[in-house]
UniProtKB/TrEMBL annotation:
The UniProt record lists the keyword Oxidoreductase: no
Sequence ranges assigned to domain Era-type G in this UniProt record: 138-318
Species for this entry: Vitis rotundifolia
GO biological-process terms attached to the record: ribosomal small subunit assembly
InterPro entries: G_ERA_dom (IPR030388), GTP-bd (IPR006073), GTPase_Era-like (IPR005662), KH_dom-like_a/b (IPR015946), KH_dom_type_2 (IPR004044), KH_sf_prok-type (IPR009019), P-loop_NTPase (IPR027417), Small_GTP-bd (IPR005225)
Chain intervals for the UniProt region annotation (G1): 146-153
Role according to the record: Has a crucial role in plant growth and development, possibly by influencing mitochondrial division.
Protein name, per record: GTP-binding protein ERG
Lineage, uppermost ranks: Eukaryota, Viridiplantae, Streptophyta, Embryophyta, Tracheophyta
Amino acid sequence: MKALRGLRALTTLSSKTQKPHLTSNLLYRFYAAQPQQQDHSTTTNSLEDHEDDDAVFDSSQFALPSMGTSPVPDQPTWDREYRAKADRTIFGEETQKQKSEEDERKRRAIVLAKALLEAALQKPDEEEDMPVKEEDQRSLSVGIIGAPNAGKSSLTNYVVGTKVAAVSRKTNTTTHEVLGVMTKGNTQICFFDTPGLMLKSSGYPYSDMRARVESAWSSVGLYDVLIVIFDVHRHLSRPDSRVVRLIERMGAQAHPKQKRVLCMNKVDLVEKKKDLLKVAEEFKDLPGYERYFMISGLKGSGVKDLAQFLMEQAFKRPWDEDPFTMSEEVMKNISLEVVRERLLDHVHQEIPYGIDHRLIDWKELRDGSLRIEQHLITPKQSQRKILVGKKGSKIGRIGIEANEELRSIFKRDVHLILQVRVK
């Protein structure tokens, strides 16, 4: 009987389905003491692809409002008159806040009526909109030179009325000659903003300057009027002998074919205005300068008098630029200058000066918007990582700010693409 029972138990166990168990390979994977060999090729490729994605800014990936739409401010749902009537009924008299609001509305109405009356009495300026005949056109070329950070680009942008040159607190912001055009009436003035120029101790230009600075020196005699500009605030606090030598060399003798003007810039930073007279007295004996101006290129103080003087010096000859439309070449330069300005704002030390900044693609789309692609080429991989930032944060910030400014300058939608790569 015991043998039969044992045989029956073995038969029952063999007839049951066996439960799945861990294979030897899986057990080896979990419990083996030796490290497992991973496929690093796929991991490396995925990391490189992720880094490449971070190194590219594409404005289409960000929600930007269209140029044609503007947010409508919330308006109160009640009528002000009924609200005032309810307050009088409840409180018996008008509150102080209501009285002040009513006085402010009356004051604004008076100011508006006065401004409309003055505008109606003025003669219409027909010369601004009507085309000027070629025989009546007058033009002038003006070069602006000076030491680095003297305010040349700020003056150019203010006179032209829009940004055409990058402005930064860092030195050597302008890397090439930038053109800005001002057209008023029958006169057109072309301003040429040049890179910062310096003189060494012997009074001659630095021999180690790059080709762009040498080109700026060679073009000094090509302009009708030459503006020599310097930072008067810095001259009063920390005078630089190199700047003084530059001013003295440019004004050492009169030039029969060119008029030269000396501009003392950043007068708004000088607290004691009497000190400006001391600076003017210092350079008054230089025969090469026909006029002296005290200006603020950033705030606009004194710029109107300078512009009026330049318009009086214009020659009777045809214009060089179209006053009604901005040429494509000028727009391309503006796009590069705007991105460079943001680059200098967010990237520090020597990194922005070693970057090769190129315009790769410029295309006007069917809907009127612009597609602009620029590449920022760094000499080292470490500099590329700094420029890109963590998860593309720095290049993204540069791209967003530049894209917004380009939209405001060009008055149209802009699709900006920035790519950072290693040389």
